[in-house]
Design a protein that fits this description.
heterodimer; A: 308 residues; disordered N terminus; B: 336 residues; mainly alpha; MetI-like fold
């Protein structure tokens, strides 16, 4: 296409002057923008801390989360009257160490987030990609089904799915995964539709790339940014909804140290021993907030339109 | 205009049928035969079981059962609760005003606080107030509301004794339900003491249920205002020498309100989902608490009907918001 011979341009262009500075690698540029967002950095730090604690729970936790100390029932946190140094955040109604249970709960919550995001992202990505790439009837069918899922409030749908599957941690994770699939499907579809007719895609289609190659190798890498943001925010939804199911008795069952379940099983001690209810909630709030901060920061750093 | 509305309505119909089918399947996905679930542990002779199956139409092909179900749904027949033997529809309708009253007040709370907070944050962009509002709203957005409710009960009800712990009305009062909305019923009966009591009972649940929408409204208002404040016509209005308050209140706010109104409408799903948790914590006699109790009692027809009715409510409100958006914004109406 570009044959400059007829335009009278010289065959050899004058040697370009050496570039003054290389444009930074995209990751470097991303990190530069991300680093300026203090909230996002704080979120990242908190998440890393929780992840390390969750990974090395056995080493970090001062006690076994399920051991019941009969002589230490409802011991208050150490700074309150009657607190003991052996139980920094106090103990629950059957003498288990709160701090240790929270630490093992962190492992569960991180695992819930990871599994839910992986599952829902995989299914949502596949559905959205197929819908956006093929269009027509396929698109209509997939998206109408997503509309049906979206017409139910997310927590209600999760409750219903958990009720059908029966209570339990695995079923709760499945329920929450199903609920968030439409978000990924819609996002992927929109991104794929925006890319499908661009020149570079047409070029590789003309070059003979099959649909699978076009979808996975050509288009997908250009749709990743919004999905990364959504997946990060998906962690917070997953942790929050799984905890809510646990609280309603439809998620993890006692004595599993899941934060929502811990809250529900100590409700009757709300007045006598507020700490048994306070700490699991603080843990949920801090973790979810950290993921939301990180997600917001990622969005700002990845979306050039919002860069200031 | 009419064509726009009709298109929107016709798009909702397949979704509605899909939800109906999903709730129809729900009762069949639950492990165990519906009749065996109903008779419980005692068991019944096999011939009686066949008889009952025939009576309920369970021995017919699935598609015929579905058509029957749809036919019933369209006439408002959602089956009978296994526990109370009342019609599911009438149970839902009796309890729904309690949920609606709570949700409406929660949304009112979210709007009354969130809208001004978002506007001021946008106008004073980068100020301490802006950072404060954004920080608080992100915290509110991340809040596990079941825990938030417990904290508020602990502080205001147990600690300070300012608000009641649960329920809708003090036991001292009895008001004949007319509309089902406690605030209206008490006023209509002229029972001002009962009205105050009902209001007292509403405060904490309203705050708890309104927390997430409040965060969403504040964030949305701020970003919509920021966008509008950068437009040329705002610069023109300022250049004309109009007072700052007039520019913000009249020129900017009017245009920023369109996306905000939409977001407020779309919070219905969040509100009805959150109602499940809020009503459980505060023993609020609405449909959210009823649904959870139905699950615990294995009352699947009640669960099935309740889910369908809530989904229908959400779809109807979303449709109204969609149409309203088209009315407010001609660009949307004509682009399709």
């Amino acid at each position: 296409m570009t044959t400059p011979t007829t335009t009278g341009l010289p065959e050899t262009l004058p040697a370009a002057s050496p570039p003054v500075s290389q444009p930074p690698h995209p990751l470097v540029e991303f990190w530069y923008h991300f680093r300026q967002n203090k909230g996002a950095m704080a979120g990242l730090a908190v998440i890393l801390l929780i992840a390390v604690v969750a990974l090395f729970a056995e080493l970090v936790a001062p006690h076994d989360p399920n051991i019941q100390y009969r002589d230490a029932i409802l011991v208050p946190p150490v700074w309150q009257e009657g607190g003991r140094w052996a139980f920094l955040l106090g103990t629950d109604d059957i003498g288990r160490d709160m701090l240790s249970r929270l630490i093992f709960g962190a492992r569960l919550s991180m695992m819930i987030g990871l599994i839910v995001v992986t599952l829902s992202l995989a299914v949502g990505l596949a559905l959205g990609m197929v819908a956006g790439f093929f269009g027509g009837v396929t698109d209509a069918l997939v998206m109408r089904f997503m509309d049906i899922l979206l017409s139910l409030p997310s927590l209600l749908l999760a409750v219903v799915v958990a009720a059908i599957l029966g209570p339990g941690l695995v079923n709760a994770m499945l329920a929450v995964s199903i609920v968030v699939i439409p978000h990924y499907a819609r996002l992927t579809r929109a991104a794929v539709m925006a890319e499908t007719n661009k020149d570079y895609v047409v070029a590789s289609r003309v070059a003979g790339a099959g649909p699978l190659r076009l979808m996975l190798v050509v288009i997908l890498p250009n749709c990743v940014a919004p999905l990364i943001v959504q997946a990060t925010l998906g962690f917070s939804t997953a942790i929050l909804d799984a905890a809510a199911l646990g609280f309603l008795g439809l998620g993890a069952q006692p004595p599993t140290p899941e934060w929502g379940t811990m809250l529900a099983s100590s409700l009757q001690f709300l007045q006598r021993a507020p700490w048994v209810v306070t700490w699991p909630g603080v843990a949920i709030l801090v973790t979810v907030l950290a993921f939301n901060l990180l997600g917001d920061g990622l969005r700002d750093a990845l979306d050039p339109k919002l860069k200031r | 205009m009419l064509r726009f509305i009709l298109t929107r309505v016709s798009l909702v119909i397949p979704t509605f049928l899909g939800v109906t089918f999903l709730t129809f399947l729900l009762i069949r996905l639950v492990p165990g035969d519906p009749i065996e679930v109903r008779v419980g542990e005692r068991g019944i002779p096999p011939e009686r079981l066949l008889e009952l199956r025939h009576e309920l139409g369970l021995d017919r092909p699935l598609w015929q059962q579905f058509l029957d179900y749809i036919g019933g749904v369209l006439q408002g027949d959602l089956g009978v609760s296994l526990v109370t033997r009342n019609s599911v529809f009438s149970e839902f309708v009796t309890l729904f005003p309690a949920t609606l009253e709570l949700a409406a007040l929660a949304m009112l709370f979210a709007t009354v606080v969130g809208l001004p907070a978002g506007i001021i944050a946008a106008v004073r962009r980068g100020s301490v107030f802006d950072h404060g509002v954004m920080g608080i709203s992100l915290t509110g957005y991340s809040m596990p509301i079941f825990w938030w409710g417990l904290l508020l009960i602990l502080f205001f009800s147990v600690g300070l004794g300012w608000t009641p712990v649960s329920g809708r009305l003090d036991l001292l009062y009895y008001v004949e339900p007319v509309t089902g909305f406690m605030l209206i019923d008490t006023l209509m009966a002229g029972e001002y003491g009962a009205f105050w009591s009902a209001l007292h009972h509403l405060i904490l649940p309203m705050i708890v249920l309104g927390t997430v929408p409040l965060a969403v409204v504040a964030r949305m208002t701020r970003s919509a205002m920021l966008e509008v404040l950068g437009e040329d016509y705002i610069r023109t209005a300022k250049a004309k020498g109009l007072a700052g308050k007039r520019v913000i209140g009249l020129h900017a706010l009017r245009n920023a309100l369109i996306p905000v109104v939409t977001v407020i409408g779309l919070q219905v799903g969040t509100l009805l989902g959150g109602a499940i948790l809020t009503e459980t914590i505060f023993s609020w006699p609405g449909v959210g608490k009823w649904l959870i109790e139905s699950i615990n009692r294995r009352d699947y027809p009640a669960l099935q009907g309740g889910v369908l009715l809530i989904a229908t409510t959400v779809m109807t409100v979303n449709l109204l918001v969609d149409v309203l958006y088209g009315v407010l914004n001609p660009r949307i109406r004509h682009s399709r």
